[in-house]
Amino acid sequence: MADKKKKKPQKLKARSPRGFVDRSAADIRATDEMIGKIREVYERYGFDPVETPAFEYTDCLGKFLPDTDRPNAGVFSVQDDDEQWMSLRYDLTAPLARHVAENINEITLPYRTYRNGWVFRNEKPGPGRFRQFMQFDADTVGAPGVQADAEMCMMMADTMEALGIKRGDYVIRVNNRKVLDAIMASVQVAEDDGGEQRLAVLRALDKFDKFGLEGVVQLLGTKGRMDESGDHTKGAGLNDAQIMRIVNATGWNEVSSGSNSGVSDGLTLANLEKALSLDGASIEGVKELEAIRGIVRAAGYEQDRIWFDPSVVRGLEYYTGPVYEAELLFDVTNEKGEKVQFGSVGGGGRYDGLVKRFTGQDVPATGFSIGVSRLMTALKNLGKLGQDEVLAPVLVTVMDKDTESLGAYQKMVQDLRGAGIRAEMYQGNPKDFSKQMRYADKRGCPIVIIQGNEERENSKVQLKDMIEGKRQAAAIESNEEYRAARPGQFEIDAADLVDEVKKLLAVQASA
């Protein structure tokens, strides 16, 4: 009986997990450039950096996600060898609360800090919606007054402008969770269900940017909303009268995703205060907004920069007072080809109860979080980021691979690097010189350095200007003529290598 043919081992399919993406060199450099500008503003305001780990014990994170219709309550979790559950952080605020509580005796309050890092959410991925993304936060812990909230709003306005986003292209929109609570109390949202209906209402209102008024009304109602894929989201269970009162009180019937109509936001707050008073609801939240408005206006931040808007929600459950969002107002084309406003690139608010979960003591706190990837996309749309290309390295070619020659080539590279010039020695197979030149061309190397035995004996080096060489080569018709002409290539003294490379790079830059 003939032996059966052995099956070839199946190749492992290279694939990234759903909702996760690789990042290119250009994206990484653009992110670093943007983060540097944000950090400069935060430092100017007197904030200091801190870093917390990506993993936290799950009970320390709490259940505060805006969406809880996914396994593991929206987080990625693993069990440690001591059977304690740990989760990847879903934001940078809950870990900060743990850090403050754990070090409360060493930290000087108010504690003013910033940090950036990756966060993870076990949510359904979609266009522009990833399970791993970067945030950049600033927080003030231990400051009970609304002046801390006012400062956050002013700092975010300054950050937008430091990134090159001009006035009129952004606005910081401000509301108060106490205002929303008062509105919900006035329409008799359930209070005896552990806060479930209240939270469902907040999450529904927070979806305006995604689903528009019609979608929000569906989420507020009893039937809920079905998305394009057929997934159903349960409604908050309000009746039509309750929905209309909430829509009217928060201004969703008039708002257009972050823009304002030119009406004074002071008048908006006055009308809101009057309406809540007539309903017998609390006006504490409106009074806090009026105080913040007075502070920012006195500091020169008018409503074209900071706008008080009762339609702002913020979906996270832990907010207890003022909430704010940074919105970009310019138009972009979405995946459906429609012109839409870019929308939110960050937000935050006051979370006075988060540290108290650990300490049992009131520790007021307020903070702001920027969505780094989303903001980077916006800046690219505006042509404000990644415009300066990073120069590819100068390439030192390898003509001989004996130890002495390799040492000489490496010395050239180190001399160039020591002078602040990006440089590398060719690391592939040096037998085929044309392959080294193709590598330099694909890499975009501006200069190639060549030294064979003859050049080394005469203390000479060949420099090839790849940019000028391409220009000259365009006029050459035959390979023989090309080899004879050596376009863009010339000889220098080896001792002058660094100076000559600097000169050539300067000429290329000016051209």
From TrEMBL:
Binding positions for L-histidine per the UniProt entry: 91-93, 121, 135, 139, 314, 318-319
An annotated GO cellular component: cytoplasm
Compartments reported by the entry: Cytoplasm
Xref: InterPro entries: aa-tRNA-synth_II, aa-tRNA-synth_II/BPL/LPL, Anticodon-bd, Anticodon-bd_dom_sf, His-tRNA-ligase, HisRS-like_core, HisRS/HisZ, HisRS_anticodon
Main location: cytoplasm
Top-level taxonomic group: Bacteria
CDD domains from the UniProt entry: HisRS-like_core, HisRS_anticodon
GO biological process: histidyl-tRNA aminoacylation
Key words, A-Z: Aminoacyl-tRNA synthetase, ATP-binding, Cytoplasm, Ligase, Nucleotide-binding, Protein biosynthesis
Boundaries of every Aminoacyl-transfer RNA synthetases class-II family profile domain copy: 38-393
Enzyme kind, highest EC tier: ligase
Record GO terms (molecular function): ATP binding; histidine-tRNA ligase activity
UniProt catalytic activity: tRNA(His) + L-histidine + ATP = L-histidyl-tRNA(His) + AMP + diphosphate + H(+)
EC numbers for this chain: 6.1.1.21
Xref: PANTHER family: HISTIDINE--TRNA LIGASE, HISTIDYL-TRNA SYNTHETASE
Assembly and interaction partners: Homodimer.
Homology family: Belongs to the class-II aminoacyl-tRNA synthetase family.
Protein name according to UniProt: Histidine--tRNA ligase
Organism, as annotated: Ahrensia marina
Lineage, highest ranks first: Bacteria, Pseudomonadati, Pseudomonadota, Alphaproteobacteria, Hyphomicrobiales
